[in-house]
User: What shape does this take?
Amino acid sequence: GREEDLDPSAKSWIQSHQIDLECAGHTKDFLKESDVIVLSPGVRIDSDVVKIADDLDIPVLGEIEFAFQFCPKPVIAITGSNGKTTVSTLIHLTLQKAGYRSVLCGNVGQPFSLFIKDIEQSDYVIVEVSSFQMESLMAGSQRDHFGVLHLKGFKPYIAAVLNFSENHLDRHKDLQEYFDAKTRIFLNQDENDYAVLNGQYSEFKDLSLTLKAQIRFFNDHEQSEADLNANQKAVCQVANILGIDWDVCRSVFREFAGVEHRLEFVRALNGVDYINDSKATTAEAGRWALTNLQRPVIMICGGRDKNINFLSLKDIVRQKVKQMIVFGEAGQKLKDTFKDVVGVEQCVQLDAAVTMAREHATDGDCIVLSPMCASFDQFRDYEERGRIFKDIVNQLKP
Assistant: This one.
């Protein structure tokens, strides 16, 4: 971006620490004195800056891998198409209830590198990792190439892939590339580490045959887990590896109020429940929401299209959705997909969508924002989208 777009406090910090700054693209002359380049998750691994680094023989690390260079404690890394934040949070709470000190970071909120100074006092580090953050992970065998730097590849003690569904196809060229990015989380593990995989996926069963780590499956119909959902089963499997009793997990599950922006109850008004599910940025996340909502649904969805195919949702939308309101850049695509199974109205802005949804709602219904799209057409992130939705809803008059 441009220098004038920088947050003033960030710019002041950069200047006070006498850090050279180059905006709106990077040049070879600027980069050539660098020892290491740390890549933001928003920058593609095939971008010009990475090509320049390759030409200059400068190692490129993602932020997760950069922070790992300074991490002396065991890392528990969580990824998947859906459920990452919930599972990461539940593991964090389970460790705390069991008497351990843990740090929760990564895609869940604050960057891994922000907590380096706190890690010495912790027992475990829980990192939520996105596919973007894993694109740049290097194999351990590449370390020696960089000589005196002695870089180490990202090597979590426990790595979990929760599930896999169509997502981020605006970034990845196809599903295979997306799958490969997700499963790079296991790249540097060895026989002393653990890979936790969802037993419902044949792809993960096949993958397990190629991994060096000890394999633990969850969600494969174990009777003792019958009353738990897939996210909870993953947490129990991690707890089992760490020697934590399942009773501790169950206590955490009972007390857990949920993650903000994930089927978050906002308020009831005139007999209608308002639900904030802004974190639902995929079709499968939308399916999960509809599966778990018991009332007739007025569904608000839309945003920036991630090149996702929504056709697989037509049956559950027909069964559960009373009216659909679509907005944002993906509005027309969503309307075209679902107009033959449910009434669909289209608008541009979220506030108008809430107004439209309210017009269709009657006593006993629920209005849910479950966008199934990225937020970047109108909002900074899904969190801002969720907060604005809650503000709109809380300002509604009876």
